[in-house]
């Protein structure tokens, strides 16, 4: 998609010129009548038909949009229609590309920011009131979302709370590096499944004080508990966007809906087993050493077991794939850019002259280049292609009246790769984020938002960034890593999954 800017210069220049002419015409017209506002239907976008709207664009063989390559769709829309694009795939949908407009949407004064996502999962959970009170953090809107978010927020988001897990995560990452060395993983293997197991171990300890032992021979069997958890997390996430656009599952259980339901049921079972084990343990003797999120959840005054089960399932859904994919893309960029990898190694060597030195929160705070590498990787390959909101009031954007209840998707991934916003945008350049660097850029704060913005931003952002950082520290400090595959793109399955195997070569460092 973004392989060569050179091949796209003419297209981009023509598009920019056309948009400039449109802007001049619109400004001229607007000045003639200050009270004039264009309506939503005036916004450029693909042709919409009665009943089906623009859904035909996503139909196999008939449409030219691929639901698993929404980054390509978003770029195609931007090229054809500009910085505001309307669609009607069953709902009124607006794509926003310009960071100033993205900021305007996020700055709306909404007590409970809403989004339209995980619609089928919401339906599934509300059909089981004996297990769930709500659809959980991911799919619930309104005051019930506000109640859950405010109840669990501090346990996830406090900087001090994240720091207490550094030692445990580092201990797991050390064992992982040792396992990689002993097993001599081959570049012919996909490294992603191993990262999935690593992050299952990490989230098990942080969230539940639970050891899954996912690297043991028994647990690597496809029918083991850890294998089925990883499979169920993917099964829950992979069909969400297609189900959000679909209609048939509302009338009968389609294969994709059944896959979602079966995946959710297994994650429910695991969550209940862990919760019951903890409750019975605490009945006998309180474990003062248990600093897991679950231990803190059980002390909350305004939640019950059904709220806790919902959040536990959300954690298993959200924490494994997202962190593994983010780490995969970071390793890809570092492996493809040996100069950047060497700079990172030099920083880590200065902070940890001995390989076996303990990673501490102080080391993490001093690892400036590491943070910029993670940030730059997330600019190029964010967790998702963008962030969605449902407008709760009418909004005016560029002279268009956008009515309430419109679903707005901020297309941050495409915007972050456009030359008018970032210099040499397809280049992995961590220095662009470092203020005292010659390559520092004053990038618009609403351009790259991998964790969202505001009250509805990722609740576990600090934990996720910390976990990725510790994994990279251990891997880069121990190995020189080379990329052995071709260009890596994304498969847009709600979250951005690498579209090819993670093919890496590891060579132990002597220092």
TrEMBL record:
It comes from Vanessa tameamea. Keywords: Heme, Iron, Metal-binding, Monooxygenase, Oxidoreductase. Its cofactor is heme. Heme binds at residue 458. One of its GO terms (molecular function) is iron ion binding. Belongs to the cytochrome P450 family. It comes from the Eukaryota. Signal peptide: none annotated. InterPro entries: CYP11_CYP27_families, Cyt_P450, Cyt_P450_CS, Cyt_P450_E_grp-I, Cyt_P450_sf. This is Cytochrome P450 302a1, mitochondrial. Gene3D superfamilies: Cytochrome P450. Pfam families: p450.
